[in-house]
Design goal:
The chain is of the alpha/beta class and 363 residues long. The protein folds into three domains: 65 residues; 44 residues; 183 residues, Ribonuclease H-like superfamily/Ribonuclease H (Nucleotidyltransferase, domain 5, 2-Layer Sandwich). It contains 13 helices and five strands. It is elongated and about 110 Å long.
């Protein structure tokens, strides 16, 4: 009778033990798998067939055979001891990497990369990234900030935030601003459409067919946006937009407009028009504080969803696309809710200024 080149000799008692391990419901699956492999080797089955039926490699079958031959059934019950892993980094080394990340920069560079830090301290790139994650360090990131120098900053902040959180009765609050110089860009080649595994593609170069300026007023209560496009951003166009607001709103309600400090908003023509329309009340955001105007958030939405990736062969096509977006958006508007009160914002700004002073003192 032909015998396979690899087999084991197991006594009747050992075969009974192996069968009990393989069939017992509480046996660990890895132990049961080893027992089945050794049983089939004792039955003269080929290792390749055993590996296929058990879903393991032939090397594993050979390994379990060697363990059984060396130690019998008990050798299959536990895993073999493994060599000790790499010793963890000493705390001093971790502290040195963290300190170097916070207080130093590499030669001829502005910030550390994980590979540069790994070479400088003789550790692996993965170890540096692990330490940075544990200590919440992100040297590759940069955030910008600006403090307003407006002497009436606190007064204007409380005024605008008060309108958001406690709007006056029988009045409508609008956030008003303009997005100037929106470019009508036409790509030099046709758009390559989206495909499985490949994103939509457009050329880097383009033809510029002119610009338009979008004036928009976001109604804080429900998120409805009144907007129109003009060729330029001047006091004349801004007054035209104010007339549009006057026509499109209930004449019995006061209108409170939140504006930034653009020259068109403070021009003599604008002041004369506002003086003739006493139901309009203007509230200016502090200098360098456009983040207080909620319409800026809506400008980010229309830029991301319609303008940035759009292709327009001329300015009328661009303005038509903007009008289409406005109409679609106002079918189901989404208000932007302001949640922070003025004291919370001022406390956060004070903490940021304290950190800045501490950083300047340290350097």
């Amino acid at each position: 009778m032909h015998l396979p080149t690899l087999c084991v000799i197991a006594s009747a008692a050992e075969q009974a033990q192996l069968a009990a391990l393989a069939n017992h419901g509480r046996t660990a699956q890895k132990v049961a798998r080893r027992a089945r492999a050794v049983l089939r080797l004792a039955e003269r089955q080929r290792p390749r067939h055993i590996a296929l039926s058990l879903g393991v490699s032939r090397n594993q079958v050979y390994l379990w055979m060697k363990r059984f031959v060396a130690g019998g059934v008990p050798a299959l019950l536990t895993d073999a001891s493994r060599p000790a892993g790499r010793a963890p980094l000493p705390p001093a080394k971790v502290a040195a990497i963290v300190n170097a990340t916070l207080t130093t920069t590499p030669p001829a560079a502005t910030h550390w990369s994980s590979r540069q830090m790994a070479r400088a301290h003789g550790v692996s790139d993965a170890m540096v990234r692990k330490i940075w994650r544990q200590h919440r360090l992100q040297p590759h990131r940069l955030e910008r900030f600006k403090f307003s120098k407006d002497p009436r900053f606190v007064e204007k902040l409380r005024d605008v935030v008060g309108l958001y959180l406690n709007p006056p009765d029988k009045a409508v609050v609008f956030c008003v601003d303009a997005k100037p110089n929106i470019q009508a860009l036409d790509r030099t080649r046709p758009l390559l459409p989206l495909q499985p595994g490949r994103p939509e593609r457009q050329t880097h170069d383009y033809h510029r067919h002119g610009t338009t300026t979008l004036f928009a007023a976001l109604r804080v209560l429900d998120g409805v946006v009144i907007g129109e496009c003009h060729a330029r951003q001047r006091a004349r166009e801004f007054v035209q937009f104010l007339r549009r607001l006057d026509r499109d709103t209930d004449a019995r309600l006061d209108l409170h407009l939140i504006l930034d400090n653009a020259s068109a908003h403070k021009s003599a023509a604008t002041k004369r028009w506002l003086a003739r329309h006493p139901r309009f009340h203007v509230h200016f955001t502090p200098t360098s504080s456009s983040w207080l105007n909620l319409v800026e958030r809506w400008f980010a939405e229309i830029t991301r969803q319609r303008i940035r990736r759009g292709t327009f062969e001329n300015v009328p096509a661009l303005t038509a696309a903007i009008r289409e977006y406005l109409a679609q958006y106002n079918h189901a508007p989404r208000p932007f809710a302001w949640t922070k009160d003025a004291d919370t914002i001022l406390a956060k700004i004070d903490r940021a200024k304290s950190c800045l002073k501490a950083s300047c003192a340290a350097h």
